[in-house]
Specification:
This protein is mostly helical and 316 residues long. It contains twelve helices and two strands.
């Protein structure tokens, strides 16, 4: 079937879809930012990064499954070749990005961890150039220099790295996993709706973590504990199960569906640029909630890194 020619009325529709795509990414990025601080509070309750990743993946898989059973059973269908792709997508693009991110925020301020993780879009641009052989403008090399320089300033490399090496390494690993997620979701969005794609991603991530850490060894009793909200909200507390529910429903099901759905309206490149709002919002939330503050070097270096990420995306 040939595409219908563009008519004057189509242009408005395209603009509306583009606007919707950006709105979805911005809302997802803001919710992800809040989710980072909530996750850091949960990690202070006694749950490990792996256990939080496991319950997040399992809870989201169950939630998406129930939604599809009720409203879209036909989207469960997947052929053998697609299943293999979805397994890789779930383990790499969904499972590892969560685990490495949780390890990173457990050792670093939320804003710094996200800033490093968001090198993912730069990796997407480099991948497009050297693997997909897409035309990439020369500015991508300027972006690379900006990102490396900015990160060197953020971690204060002249003083022997001011932050945890484990945290920085995990955040860099999360950047590569995020790039894999963006590239695979962009490819699969043409064949599958965002909810079923998210379901399969979290399903295979949950199964992978169940093999690594069997569910019967999970410390379920911790969910019944009450934990301080820390920082500027330390006088308040909340049950761990409620915070985990927020991470699963709002910080996972809603956000991943919005982000994956946005790729049906705008390219991964533009979505990645809009998503760079997340480290900015996360820094503000972590400052207001946890009292995390940054020096002049971190703020200046962070601005340079964000400029480099945006520049890299406009080069694709």
């Amino acid at each position: 079937m040939v595409d219908a020619p563009f008519l004057p009325s189509d242009e408005g529709r395209i603009d509306d879809r583009t606007r919707l795509g950006y709105t979805m990414v911005i809302v997802a990025a803001s919710l992800f930012a809040v989710n980072g601080t909530v996750s850091k509070v949960i990690l202070g309750s006694g749950l490990s990064s792996l256990e939080l990743t496991q319950i997040r993946s399992t809870g989201a898989a169950v939630g998406f499954f129930l939604f599809l059973v009720l409203f879209a059973r036909s989207t469960f269908r997947a052929d053998r070749r697609e299943i293999l792709f979805l397994v890789v997508f779930g383990i790499t693009g969904v499972g590892l990005v969560q685990l490495l991110y949780f390890v990173a925020i457990d050792h670093l301020p939320v804003g710094i961890a996200l800033l490093i993780q968001f090198l993912g879009p730069l990796i997407v641009a480099l991948f497009a150039r050297f693997v997909y052989h897409e035309h990439i403008r020369r500015r991508v090399w300027a972006a690379l220099v900006l990102c490396i320089t900015g990160l060197a300033v953020v971690v204060e490399i002249w003083s022997g790295i001011a932050f945890s090496v484990v945290g920085i390494t995990a955040a860099l690993g999360a950047a590569f996993a995020l790039a894999a997620y963006i590239l695979m979701a962009e490819r699969e969005r043409k064949h599958r709706d965002p909810v079923s794609l998210s379901f399969y991603g979290f399903l295979f991530a949950a199964l992978f973590w169940a093999v690594i850490n069997p569910l019967w060894t999970f410390p379920w009793d911790v969910l019944g504990d009450t934990v301080s909200l820390q920082g500027n909200l330390s006088e308040y507390s909340a049950p761990v199960w409620l915070l985990v529910a927020f991470v699963v429903v709002v910080g996972t099901m809603v956000t991943f569906t919005l982000l994956t759905g946005a790729l049906r309206h705008i390219p991964a490149t533009k979505a990645s640029i809009a998503a760079t709002l997340e480290p900015v919002v996360a820094t503000v939330v972590a400052w207001a909630w946890l009292g995390e503050t940054f020096g002049t070097a971190q703020l200046l270096g962070g601005a340079v890194v964000l400029a480099g990420i945006v520049l890299a995306q406009t080069a694709r």
